[in-house]
Amino acid sequence: MQYEPVNLTGNLVTLEPLNAAHLPEIRLAAQDGELWKLFFTSVPAPENTEHWLQLALDMQTQQKAIPFAVRDNNSRKIIGSTRFCNMDHQNRRLEIGYTWYARSAQRSGVNTECKLLLLTTAFEEMGCIAVEFRTDWFNRRSQAAIERLGAKRDGVLRSHMVLPDGRIRDTVVYSILQNEWPGVKRNLQYLQNQYGE
């Protein structure tokens, strides 16, 4: 499951391997909609953006994650971030997570295209046998978006994480298996076409 991060380019967005130079644009994207105020997301507050970025890069150094900045192809602005994470090289599994988009980029086809780019890379280049998605029990919008992609709900990990504010999070787990990928890919391409691409 070796992979050297490169730009992943679609019609709407380009996923760029995250680096320190992205910091000012990541901070601006997170401010679009003040997304850090949603208690069930991992979006960095302006004063925490540098720490958030350093943690992402540390995870990459430890080969636990591959973080990306999401750039809008028309405006050329960074509009969010996503990453491969919880990478299990031996068992050829990973999670797509830490995903967030500026408010102005939501419900625009961006998430569909990002997931198509990431899943194509995971299954067709990295040889994954399963890709997971995890989200907070209270993040109903995220659950609906994951189900819309074609992922199946595996279950709920009760009292799974203690969050920085002390809240104990229940985590909803979804996955797509290698043998399901052709159908999921066709579904994502169909959804992408609904946005006129």
UniProtKB/TrEMBL annotation:
Residues 24-179 form the N-acetyltransferase domain. It comes from the Bacteria. Gene3D superfamilies: 3.40.630.30. Signal peptide: none annotated. SUPFAM superfamilies: Acyl-CoA N-acyltransferases (Nat). InterPro entries: Acyl_CoA_acyltransferase, GNAT_dom. PANTHER family: BLL6696 PROTEIN, N-ACETYLTRANSFERASE DOMAIN-CONTAINING PROTEIN. This is GNAT family N-acetyltransferase. It comes from Undibacterium griseum.
